[in-house]
Amino acid sequence: MSKKISSLKNKLVKELSKLKQKRYRQENGLYVIEGFHLVTEALNANEKYKYLLGTEEALAKIQDIFPHLLTSMNTFVINSTVAHHLASTKNSQDIFMVLKITQPQNYHFNFGKWVLLDHLADPGNVGTIIRTADAAGFDGVVLSPESVDIYNPKTQRAMQGSQFHIKLVVQDLIDVIKEMQDNAIPVYSSMLDQNARKLQELVKAPQVGIVIGNEAHGVTSEIEKICDQKLYIPIKGEAESLNAAVAAGIIIYYFS
Fold first, then answer.
1. Which CATH number belongs to the domain containing residue 44 in this structure?
2. Fewer CB within 10 Å, N- or C-terminus of the chain?
3. 64 by DSSP, 3-state: which?
4. CATH number for the domain including 139?
5. Where is the RNA 2-O ribose methyltransferase substrate binding domain (predicted)?
6. Strand runs (DSSP E) across 30-111, as ranges?
7. In terms of domains, do 56 and 128 share one?
8. Rounded distance, CA 107 to CA 44, Å?
9. Which domain holds residue 21?
């Protein structure tokens, strides 16, 4: 039988509400996803969740697809007041799942196609790039520790479930790039630089690392120096530059 929660003073509700903040996500090793699409993606990927919470109506919709869920001891029926309190969106779908943070430790980069995000700050850009890398069949995305938290609710919404399909790693990019190069994986940095090569001039490598820099400041000088090649996407109109996620998408599909 599913348990019912109707008070904002409930201990679990208080704990889960705190997970909107990065500090508490890190302390507890947990994060929340919200909405039917993300919850369904997690269940289809057989993700082991800690809690599933939703209004009776929302859980009924999920039960139609996954009949066993409402018999789980980890499923809680909440009212609309609690749902509104937990929601990170204005128009919540009243369904939430709590998952463990399972970040790979000491991942080895000896094969594949990867996007490397250097100090990216916008959660929408990061989520969109991860989703694009997933769609293009890349192996994963590596984020510098200074980049936005991938468990940020806005990042989660922008990823649209791609976090369940490809590897997401938070690791020092200098170490990652050196390991890729030691394994004959070329690493290219995207830059607005007259000394860079046009994207179309580069040979499409079967394995590759693509560095995308911060939205305002670009790739850091330390990363730029160790990459194999700088590349740029020609601007044909009057715009000064491309949005980071758009530029990443063009490069990702070039090498896909």
1. 3.30.1330.30
2. N
3. helix
4. 3.40.1280.10
5. 32-105
6. 30-34, 49-54, 75-78, 95-100
7. no
8. 25
9. 3-100
pLDDT of 10-32, one tens digit each? 999 999 999 999 999 999 999 99
Alpha helices in 45-152 (DSSP H): 56-65, 80-86, 123-135
Within this chain, do residues 73 and 167 fall inside the same structural domain, yes or no? no
Question: Does one domain contain both 138 and 231?
Answer: yes
Residue 105 lies in a domain: no
Q: Which two tokens stand for residue 30?
A: 């947990």
CA 114-118-121 angle, to 5 degrees, is 120
- Are the C-beta atoms of 40 and 113 separated by less than 8 Å? no
* pLDDT of the residue at 71: 62
**Helices assigned H by DSSP within 184-228:** 221-226
Domain boundary among 34, 66, 100: 100
Do 25 and 149 touch, CB atoms closer than 8 A?
yes
Q: pTM of this prediction?
A: 0.93
The CB density around residue 246, as the number of other CB atoms within 10 Å, is 15
Mean pLDDT across the stretch 150-155?
A: 94
Measuring CA to CA, how many Å separate 153 from each of 21, 89, 192?
9, 9, 31
CA distances from 7 to 2, 82, 203 (A): 16, 7, 60
| Mean pLDDT rounded to a whole number for the chain | 93
pLDDT at 70: 61
244 located within any domain: yes
Residue 170: closest CA among 191, 155, 189:
155
Name the one residue in this structure whose structure tokens are 């029926």. 77
